[in-house]
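Aim 2 progress update. The chain analyzed this quarter is reproduced below.
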Amino acid sequence: EVQLVESGGGLVQPGGSLRLSCAVSGFSFRYYAMSWVRQAPGKGLEWVSVINSGGGSTTYADSVKGRFAISRDNAKNTLYLQMNSLKPEDTAVYYCAKHRSPNYYSNPPSIDEYNYWGQGTQVTVSS
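Predicted structure tokens:
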């Protein structure tokens, strides 16, 4: 059974940092690209960042570029999102999503490129 379990969310003040993790099981993590996607209250899904299977290629949404960093540890089957200089507009539920292939083929990736999602972790940026 494929499982993606996010953790690391919470309440943080503006300007603060959080590190999200996504622990996966049930598939060969090292062979697939992975994305972070978020959903703010009352809004649709917003893609945040993607990393290819080997970790050598990453892309970010303009809204988080320079503040967020995606990474992965294929030995630990874990995806990460380091979030710095957080803003209130970063408040959202953050999901990790497994791609169908080792690479991503559009920027931002099409939702059709994903085939599994985690349950999400809440990030709230507020003073």
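DSSP finds no helices and eleven strands in the chain. The mean pLDDT is 96. These observations will guide the mutagenesis experiments scheduled for the next reporting period.
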